[in-house]
Design goal:
Layout lengths: L6 H52 L10 E2 L4 H13 L2 E7 L4 E6 L8 E10 L2 E10 L1 H49 L19 H61 L9 H18 L3 E8 L2 H8 L1 H19 L4 E6 L2 E7 L3 H17 L11 E7 L6 H17 L5 E4 L9
Parallel strand pairs: 1-4, 9-10
Antiparallel strand pairs: 2-3, 2-5, 4-5, 6-8, 6-9, 7-8
Length: about 425
């Protein structure tokens, strides 16, 4: 992860780095020029020393070393010259002609640092001669190092002063300029944007005004985009709510239609109990379950006695009412212990899971008594029932159970009506 730095420190450090680089280049050039100047000054001192000594000896007629006619026999002259040059720091003096090389002063050794050589041409005995002077660089380097240290100290002081000035005017100033904008931005609310004013001290700078104007344009653009997005979201939410409400209404309608369809498909429209189709499905399921789990399963088939006479005497509407009341009476007695269905016409079926034949017989008697005692709108109406009862035997099929129960019901009708006949099977033994 990149480490973040303050922009003001970055600007100040770059300015300071540029200044130090330029200062090093300038001071280096000054030191180089100063070094050459020191060397030239030392050469002039030696020139003046030789010239003055020769002028003292030869008279004021000497105008230059090149035009001077010296006598090699004049040992005093060379002694004075060598003595004076030695005091000037000359390490070696050599007199050289075309075929002769004479050392006059020789302090040169292997430990001597690099030497600078100056050659002075002159004439002696009408011969062209050269006086060579070798000077050590030690003195020049001492002066150079002294000046270098002075420049380094000056550069350090200048750098420190400039750093303080930069920190006060640049870092502190830019920090104040940016902090004002930062504080305004931290309190900015895009729902109700305010104009940025920044720091009043910096408004006189054109660049600062450019920055503020640009940021204000961006802020107002963001606020406008936010408002547009909010409006679009509101419209979208409204449309979604409308679609959701429409879907919920359609779903509710579909649920109600499904309920109606289920009711139409599974219940008898007159009595509001299960119809024959639904009963057949439930009967097969419970027979399979009883065989698998070896549990009791009893069946009641009910036929209303003399129901045709009620229809003929009182009308079909009264007959329908009798069927409805009978169905409700069956449901009130059986409740959650069994399944009540209209078998067809004036016949009803009651399926009793987990109930043995003795309890099923008791339920059948209760149903018979309740219907016999039931009262209708017309006191002349009196309805009874004939009931056949049987229990599923081991290994018996559902079809066999239906046949035995139906036979028991017809036996009840044929032997006097208004009674319950129980068929326990050929061996009088049901499922335990």
């Amino acid at each position: 992860m990149t480490k973040c730095v303050r922009f003001t420190h970055f600007v100040a450090c770059n300015i300071l780095g540029c200044y130090v680089t330029i200062s090093v280049i300038v001071y280096g050039a000054l030191l180089f020029a100063y070094h050459a100047e020191v060397q030239e000054k030392q050469k002039r001192q030696i020139d003046n020393t030789i010239y003055l000594l020769i002028q003292q000896i030869k008279g004021s007629s000497v105008t230059s070393l090149g035009s001077t006619d010296l006598s090699l026999d004049d040992s005093g002259l060379f002694f004075e010259v060598c003595h004076q040059l030695d005091r000037e720091g000359v390490k070696g003096i050599f007199l050289q002609s075309a075929d002769h090389y004479t050392p006059i002063l020789d302090h040169i050794n292997k430990e001597t640092s690099a030497l600078e050589t100056w050659v002075y041409p002159f004439s002696a005995r009408n011969q062209s001669m050269r006086l060579s002077a070798y000077v050590s660089n030690d003195k020049v380097w001492r002066v150079f190092i002294h000046r270098l240290l002075w420049y380094m100290g000056l550069l350090f002081i200048q750098t420190a002063i400039i750093y303080l000035l930069l920190y006060y005017f640049v870092v502190r100033g830019l920090g104040m300029a940016v902090s004002g904008i930062q504080q305004e931005l931290s309190q900015m609310n895009l729902d109700d944007p305010k104009r940025l004013y920044g720091n009043a001290k910096f408004l006189r700078f054109l660049e600062y005004q450019w920055i503020l104007n640009g940021m204000n344009k961006i802020i107002h653009g963001l606020a406008a985009s936010r408002r547009e997005l909010s409006e679009l979201n509101s419209q979208l939410e409204e449309k979604v709510a409308q679609k959701t409400q429409s879907l919920e209404e359609k779903n509710m309608t579909l649920v109600q239609l499904n309920k109606k369809l289920y009711t139409l498909a599974n219940t008898d429209s007159l009595t509001q109990v299960y119809n024959r189709t639904r009963f057949d499905l439930l009967f097969r399921e419970h027979v399979a379950m009883a065989e698998h789990k070896e549990t009791y399963l009893s069946l009641l088939l009910i036929d209303l006695d003399n129901f045709k006479r009620v229809n003929d005497q009182f009308g079909h509407q009264v007959g329908d009412h009798v069927l409805y009341v009978t169905a409700k009476l069956l449901e009130s007695v059986v409740m959650n212990d069994g399944i009540v269905a209209r078998w067809g016409g004036e016949e009803f079926a009651v399926l009793l899971p987990h109930i043995a034949i003795d309890q099923a017989q008791h339920i059948a008697e209760t149903l018979r008594q309740h219907l016999e005692e039931a009262s209708f709108d017309d006191p002349a109406i009196h309805i009874t029932m004939s009931v056949g009862v049987s229990q599923l035997l081991l290994g018996e099929s559902g079809m066999s159970l239906l046949k035995r129960t139906d036979a028991a019901m017809y036996q009840a009708k044929n032997t006097g009506r208004n009674q319950v006949i129980v068929d326990t099977g050929p061996d009088e033994k049901g499922i335990s």
